[in-house]
Amino acid sequence: MSDKMNVDALFLGPKSENQVFFKEMMDYAVSEHMHWRSDFHPEDAPLMTPVTQHQPDFRDTLYRTEGILQDLSARLKTKSVPWFSPRYLGHMNADTLMVSNLAYVMTMLYNPNNCAHEASPVTTELELAAGHDLCRMFGYDVNKSWAHITSGGTVANYEGVWVARNLKTMPLAIAACEKSKDLVEGMTEHQLLNMKSKEILDLTDELKKRGIFEEVRALTARGVGVDAGKLGKFLVPRSKHYSWMKAMDVLGLGQEHIVPLDVDGNYRTDVEKMREVTFKLMEEGTPILGMVSVVGTTEEGSIDAVHEVIKLRQECEEKYGASFYVHVDAAYGGYVRSMFLDDDNQFMEYDALIERYRNDDVIPEGVVWPKRAVYDAFAAMSEADSITVDPHKVGFIQYAAGAVAMKDKRIVDLISYHAAYVFEEAGDDNEEDKQVVLGSSIMEGSKAGATAAAVWAAHRLVPLNVSGYGHVIGRGIVTADWFAKKLATAEPFVIDGRRFEVRPLMHPDFHMVDFTFKEIGNDSLEAHNKLNQRIYELCSYATGRTYTKDFLTSSTSLSEEEYGQTPRIYAESRGFSENEWNTVGSVYILRSAVMTHFLRDEIRFNNYWNNLRDVFTSLLSEIIDEENKQKLAHTAA
């Protein structure tokens, strides 16, 4: 079935090309729900009679409802951002899967709340199934791991820190309890704070056998609070999402305990500097609460060397007897791991992978992807303790759908709560059949079952392997490669005798392409930044001119404060002096996530690029006209 999947049949399309099917299925979704209502105890008499429905106030209420919806539609059509269009290359948004939209609407009408199984008997099971899908994609043992849907990557990252914190304090709690301290007898506090995740979870099994797990758990951070300084440092790349700062705040660990890890010229965590920082902490005897790798940085799309982090942890365990928690923030790039799995969900060897890409036309000749370092990083994700992933990014599922996966589901016991009036146990007396109870084991409370249905349905139609999502995601990767190459070799734009050159920040690891324009001969970094900021303003929804522009993108600023000296590498490559960098300290860039799958055709893409050159020429001309008018006004004044 999957080998017959047509990617164009998955989406409504930029011009609503699949509107007939979509409308039929939308009508089916609504009709089925109405039939369900009608057929529930058909012996019950209708409570609204035709006489009631023809009352003036009844009709007036319906007319006002219609008016409000017409008003909403006008607002949405006027100012919404057209993620579905190839003209939009900006944030991590694109057209969404028809099946997920339809599944969401169909389920939304039933209004299930996945906080409790009683309130969501269908969608709770769908969420657990979708979680299994994600665990399998990441290479986890689905019988021992667990994943659930969150509102987004921010909450998923919170949960990563949450479980890391409670896990880190469990050995201390065991040592503090008279009934369990024999389990860690003879261990120093330093040893207790540097245990492997599995060793700690094995101890919790013993606590459960003794019937004292909850008593000891009350002595962990969840019960007695936390001495953040004692737990050590949390190592996060400079390319981090801001949610990590918020997580340390919310969980009482303090942002001062974050140690920023420098990034290299590709905006991946600098491996050598990471090792230096880690070994320095080890030599000082400072515990490491956790370390984060980013798989798909939000600003550059870079893929951290997860394999080097796993290797580093093993070295620390062997050399210093000290371990630490590893979390992968793959909110952006997590679904890309599906591209490495064969039809049996097995991670493919590199050479076999490339051969499969060529045979199936996933990645054509001339496009080098993945780079070997990127391949190794995705291979190592299965060794991480937990992983954040957002179906609403590269899963092409509508908001809000984040997720977090945990390698060992026993860790959930360290954070779970149970309130009898809301939660009920799942499964029967067979321990293997028992599922983690959603509401009592997550950070959020009430949550839409419709989201679970959307993710579940998407996974059923588009397998999480090279035959499914591989074809969808691969289209964006190929287009991004072509786009980056065009930018890197583009002839200068000449307007009124002034020449402008466009160049990419780097060749992408994934499908995020960053680039800037520079006026040739103008070596002012401040002028460069103003030029690119103005281009962004003219290509942004923020101008209120979404429908009058031919190209929409996003932007960001890579600053010394946030990234250290790494952005200086690009600034120097564009001809800016050391003095310019030291004075300005940041470079403003245009940022394009090339997620569209509609340009994966060389003729279509080349036409697109030629049109885009015209758009860029028009933008630069508009900016020059603005500058000339300002000069005339200044002269006149």
TrEMBL record:
Identify residues that carry N6-(pyridoxal phosphate)lysine. Answer: K393
The family database entries (PROSITE patterns) matched by this protein are listed as: DDC_GAD_HDC_YDC
Task: Output the Pfam families linked to this UniProt entry.
Answer: Pyridoxal_deC, tyr_de_CO2_C
Native species of this protein? Photobacterium aquimaris
UniProt keyword annotations, A-Z? Lyase, Pyridoxal phosphate
GO terms for MF: diaminobutyrate decarboxylase activity; pyridoxal phosphate binding
Give the gene name. ddc_2
Q: Where are the transmembrane segments?
A: none
Name its co-factor(s): pyridoxal 5'-phosphate
Record's Gene3D superfamilies? Type I PLP-dependent aspartate aminotransferase-like (Major domain)
Q: Which top-level group of life is the source organism from? A: Bacteria
Name of the protein in its database record: L-2,4-diaminobutyrate decarboxylase
Q: Where is the L-tyrosine decarboxylase C-terminal domain?
A: 489-617
EC number(s) of the enzyme?
4.1.1.86
Q: A GO BP term, please? A: carboxylic acid metabolic process
